[in-house]
């Protein structure tokens, strides 16, 4: 079972990562977000930052749908994310090895090409 501390540790282990000050966690590479805390929005209520859920960049709609359909206990989306290459991950439903794969893949998809070689040493 993974948690927000695992997300932080993994994101900080990747090259050129910047953590944005937030109520939860929010990581960027090359100025682009790749993993952050889920900002849950309920109509009529203030936004709640959920550090037990990570929003991950997944690249495209096909990958998003594959994750949502293939692992529905782990991944979900909301109408606010329709058309965006993002999924929400229930951290308690994933082990650290799988989280490492997901966070690293998100980094690879968002990092500028010139940063790719720097990941080889990680």
Model description:
This protein is of the alpha+beta class and 122 residues long. 32% of the residues lie in helices and 27% in strands. It has a 6-stranded antiparallel beta sheet. Helix 1 packs across helix 3. The two termini are 23 Å apart. The model has no long low-confidence stretch (mean pLDDT 94).
Which features does this protein show?
single chain, about 120 residues, alpha+beta, six-stranded antiparallel beta sheet, 4 helices, 6 strands
Record the SSE blueprint.
Layout: H1 4-13, E1 17-19, E2 26-29, E3 32-40, E4 48-57, H2 61-70, E5 75-76, E6 86-90, H3 96-110, H4 116-119
Antiparallel strand pairs: 1-2, 2-3, 3-4, 4-6, 5-6
Helix pairs in contact: 1-3
In short:
The protein is 32% helix and 27% strand. It is built from four helices and six strands, in the order H-E-E-E-E-H-E-E-H-H. Helix 1 (4-13) crosses helix 3 (96-110).
Beta-strand residue fraction: 25-35%
Instruction: Give, in order, the helices and strands.
Output: HEEEEHEEHH
Let me know the largest β-sheet: 6 strands, antiparallel
Figure out the total of helices. Answer: 4
Q: What is the helix fraction of residues, given as a range?
A: 25-40%
Gross morphology = globular
Strands in their spatial order, largest beta sheet: 1-2-3-4-6-5
- What's the gyration radius in Å? 14 Å
**Termini, distance in Å?**
23 Å
Alpha-beta classification: alpha+beta
Ranges where pLDDT stays below 50 over 5 or more residues in a row are none
Mean pLDDT score, rounded?
Answer: 94
Number of strands: 6
């Amino acid at each position: 079972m993974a948690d927000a501390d695992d997300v932080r540790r993994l994101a900080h282990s990747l090259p050129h990562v910047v953590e944005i000050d937030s109520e939860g966690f929010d990581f960027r590479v090359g100025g682009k977000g790749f993993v952050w805390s889920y900002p849950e929005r309920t109509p009529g209520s203030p936004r709640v930052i959920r550090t037990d859920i990570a929003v991950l960049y997944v690249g495209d709609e096909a990958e998003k749908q594959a994750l949502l359909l293939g692992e529905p206990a782990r991944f979900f989306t909301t109408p606010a994310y329709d058309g965006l290459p993002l999924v929400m991950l229930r951290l308690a439903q994933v082990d650290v090895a799988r989280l490492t794969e997901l966070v690293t893949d998100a980094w690879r998809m968002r990092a500028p090409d010139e940063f790719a070689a720097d990941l080889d040493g990680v």
